[in-house]
Amino acid sequence: MSTLLHPHDSVDLHSPNKLHHFTLDRRSFVKLFSGGLLVCLTNAPAFAQESGRGGFRGHALPKEVSAWIQIDAEGKVTVFTGKVEVGQNIRTSLAQLTAEELMVPFESITMVMGDTDLVPWDAGTFGSQSTPQMGPRLRTMAATARRTLVDMAAKQWSTDASTLTTADGRVTNPASKQSLTYGQLTHGEKLIATVSADTPLVPAKDWKIAGTAVPKAQGRDFVTGRHQYPSDITLPGMLFGKVLRPAGYNATLDSLDTTAAEKMPGVKLIRDGDFIGVVAPDMYTAEQAVGAIHAKWTVPPQPSNKGIFDYLKNNPESGGRVRRGSETESVAPASIPADAIHLTQSYTVQYIAHAPLEPRAAVAQWQNGKLTVWTGTQRPFGVKDELVAAFHLDPSQVRVLQPDMGAGYGGKHTGDAAVEAARLARSAGAPVKLVWSREEEFTWAYFRPGGLMELRAAVSPEGKLLAWEHHNYNSGPSGLETYYDIVAPVTQYHAAKSPLRQGSYRGLASTANHYARESFMDELAHAVKMNPLAFRQKNLTDARVLAVLNAAAEKFGWSAAQSTPTRGFGIACGTEKGGYVGTCAEVAIDSSTKSVRVVRIVQAWESGAVVNPDGLRNQNMGAVMQGIGGALFESIRFGNGRIENPHFADYRLPRFRDMPQIEIVLVDRKDLPSAGAGEIGLVGVAPAIGNAIFAATGARLRNLPMAPSDPVPGIGPSPLTC
Amino acid sequence: MSVRTLNINGAAMHVDASDDETLLSVLRYRLALTGTRFGCGEGECGACTVLLDGKSVRSCQTAVSEVGAAKITTVEGLEHDGRLSPVQQAFLDEGAFQCGYCTSGMIMRATALLATTPNPTEKDIVSRMNGNLCRCGTYPRIVAAVQRASMLAKGGTL
User: Fold this and answer.
1) Do A225 and B74 touch (CB under 8 A)?
2) CB-CB contact of A665 with A624 (8 Å)
3) ipTM higher than 0.95?
4) What is the mean pLDDT of chain A?
5) Is the pTM value of this prediction over 0.90?
6) Which chain A residues have a beta carbon less than 8 Å from that of B35?
7) In sequence order, what are the beta bridge partners of A537?
8) Which of A388, A709, A717, B139 is 20 to 30 Å from B155 by CA-CA measure?
């Protein structure tokens, strides 16, 4: 299986290939070809189109305010955006930014998100782009709307607009004491205004609503159970679907017996090429029916964990190469002094699973020639494109709605469940709900890529970096660039033919590349007998990296931290997607059980002007917890086209007992644009922990996960478990 | 399939289901009580936690035939006259969620915990809640929420 690389998405969005290719049934052929209209059935899924250049891929973004913001006669504000809420709190923070510029109470705003019939086109919610891209866009629209309202009031009162003030959803004339609400001005009519690029915005230092700890929008619905996630959507007359999964990847079907399943009451079998599914009047019967299908498959031999890194290195994907620095120069040019210390090391990361607690789910309905699908996805418009392609529809015939979902972490870019539910619903003649099982989610979604990192460097005896080379095989190019001061570093990403379906993940390759770089920096510090903090400081002039590194070290008490065989202290730093982290870790080693426990993490964080400090702390804390899983114990075990640990019982995730004391230092740079904060919090965790383990034990752990409960085949036993 | 009567959130509900169908499946797919979430179906994540006579159980591991006349409480049954339960209020106050998908199960588990241990230590909370997964990693806030709920339940404030 392969991945596509998107050069414009900070070279970070891996898009997995499709799960199904439907054959057209006879009716569809007649429909397509009987009207004299030639439809070219090219294999041009959404991703292929997206890999073209240009930020909006042919989608012109509306410049009219009314496409983004509407104000009704009562002054209620509705904001439309293609970004979606997956737990990162963007529903709240985008509403704060809009309220700030529009000068209305936060509570007056309703966000309509991820409904492809109602909101302007959007590429999706990934790459920490919602805050830096959608934030300024909505702010500009809101500022324009406010200016338009002021102009309307000025016209009505025959006065100069510059003498009027706005606050709390009202325009006021201080001289005449006249005042009108926004609703009284618009009467609910659409605002006619077009934005200009130079619309002045409220500077972050003057923010009153943005920049504050507004609680999560609609938070009450999450504690009462009232919120409806995609898997909770229920329609009248809805049937329940299940899909028969092959015995492994790339399997071929040898025989199929559906007799028993089809005898069950109300069960209908639906087959289309490689796709076999059932619908039933209730979920219980659908599960029984799919379990009663007897299928025999042949699964071809395929790679496993053992030897995977050699495999990735030796199976390059053509065209997936990103290189910076000289093609010919590498470490050890003639100019490096003879007394320099040279070091070469390799680091690996395993394939891991996103494991969102809500598995993929969709409810699909065909009605009056229109397909409507409620589903959990980070890319509603991408899913719409998948549905258009799969069913040969006109885009106007497809609507995708994305209720705030049970998270994604980069794992829900595709529309697999949506396409499957729609295929079932089309044959069933009724709406169909499909919810993937946990095993399906672990097996048939996609993974964070595994990868191999090879680093070489030369350093002077005084601790100055002289040369640097960093290669990444398969896991991705993001975070590959070094922020340390080195003349002409060489960094290279080598795309590989992955044996597993792989794709985006929170922090994606940046976690792997930071783990490699920051571990290697620790090894270099040790080689020149320098304190790891001092060694980093000596090779850093990037003020933003330095600021968070120093802030974390100070809060942690780094200068007094003396590691012992049972207690280790480690440090790391990094930058990703416009955000900066410094991370310090304290680990406890139990030498009798040979186990490690993370005791304390201090993380300093800077991502420009903070939009919601409470949300940011929450994100940051969650990123630390998630980072601990990837650092210490998460890994997918696979072989011959099968996932060997597709259950929570076999795939260990961070739990309460893994929780360290977490201290977050927020560095609020009101003078800088707000950056996205979903991903950066992960990147320092693994190297800080690994460096702490080294400080305590002297063991340098160069493979993630570092302390798996069960040994990962192919990387040798770790001296520690967790 | 047979029609049975379940006592859910104080009301008698009639439902047609097979003996071996799970309580989770009945709640979600036959009664549209979707506040109880499906996370794994394997008893490993706790998203489907409900109370049976006040004790927390995994509804995905409970056959509907085992329930009998026991009083079932789901997250929908905690709010009374528009007032959140102390645990619900504490989760809201602490912002102890991100995506919120684990929240129903966390709240049910914490409710059962506080019923038997009104003054839990952090260690009590960690060991008793450990079976519930939060993939977003909001554990520190959930611990704080359970501590706050303990105060609220006694009429105290923090």
Assistant:
1) yes
2) no
3) yes
4) 91
5) yes
6) 224-226
7) none
8) B139
